Amino acid sequence: MSKHLEDLIRNNKAEFDRHEPPAFIWENIEARLDQPKKGRTFSLGFVLRVAAIVVLVMSVGFGFYLRKMSSEISIASINPGYARQETKLVSLIENQRREMENYTEAYPEMQKEFTTEMDKMDAVYQKLKADLPTSPNRERVVRAIIRSLQVQTEVLKQQLEVVEQYKEYKKQQSNEHKNI
Fold this sequence. Notes:
It is built from 8 helices and no strands. It is mostly helical. The chain folds into 2 domains: 41-72; 75-179. Helix 6 packs parallel to helix 8 (138-179) and helix 7 runs antiparallel to helix 8.
């Protein structure tokens, strides 16, 4: 102890002795020390219920975590080059579809057939996009998405050519009938 503290205690010993706790307090402390310590005991059922609740809460939390992580996955996070390519292809497809609608309004039977085919290809594209977050090989799924979009653009291009050829054919038939 420091010298200053020892001096303080020696000089004020009478003051410290005057404020002693009552004797029954010491008796209570001794009685408690003599008693065997009681530990909390839990039944096996209680422990298992608590463990089940902890596992359930952790499972739900992990499920939410996985859902959050899977919803945040995009093509751009996997490969920015593919994301740019996807954007260009989707834009091209939208433009080609608008152009196709303008052409095929005069030919409803062609429009119905073309629309059915494009809806099937679009369904494949949407399924691939939905499978992307849960796929173990995301790079491969991204390539399949891009390939799906490329196929759609090629099919639309061919459909536009067919409509143009059909339009020319109808025009020639019309001219031949006028000449007769």
